[in-house]
Amino acid sequence: KQEVTQIPAALSVPEGENLVLNCSFTDSAIYNLQWFRQDPGKGLTSLLLIQSSQREQTSGRLNASLDKSSGRSTLYIAASQPGDSATYLCAVRPRRYGGATNKLIFGTGTLLAVQP
Amino acid sequence: GAGVSQSPSNKVTEKGKDVELRCDPISGHTALYWYRQRLGQGLEFLIYFQGNSAPDKSGLPSDRFSAERTGESVSTLTIQRTQQEDSAVYLCASTNRGMNTEAFFGQGTRLTVV
Predict the structure, then answer these.
(1) Chain B closest CA to A37's CA: distance in Å?
(2) Cα of B106 to nearest chain A Cα, Å
(3) Of A22, A69, A78, A84, which residue is most buried, by most CB within 10 angstroms?
(4) Which residues contact B90 (CB under 8 A, 6 or more apart)?
């Protein structure tokens, strides 16, 4: 059974700091991994999608890496800003799940607070 | 449409009443997901639709929950005889055809059962 873990559960950093969020998954048989942010009381906003054949993806100040064999992904945020404060979620799409579907399996998230 | 649209954004209902939540996926997206997020908790899978295939209902928590989707368009999640433990944010997502595509979420419906 695929399980996704995110560490740390919460993180507080001063503005301008570079930071790394971690995502671990137990089964390397995945199609892709996606990072989202969720603002309080809101839905999820997609940040980056990494295919299983890729090692990393970049979007602006965000860089996500994927090491499928070790079951790890990291989200690197450069020069953090107060507007980056949110909960960050990672999700994997299993290559097989009960042979019937390929739903997204989510981690429990990292709550990030960037202090001005 | 430009994104996944959910309605209503907020719903307060009395215990025992039925509720219907609506999701309009991105036009052309064949797959649609419903998730539930209780306060302070992670996303809990409910149901998955892919085109005209039989839906994966393995996440529905009880027979009070059901969902329908007509073709590749709108989906409705129905909760009958609501209970207080049903209070949560219900999130809908859609993806394009294929497994290596990005999932896009709506803003959710916040359901409060009083």
Answers:
(1) 11
(2) 6
(3) A84
(4) B6, B21, B34, B35, B36, B37, B46, B77, B108, B109, B111
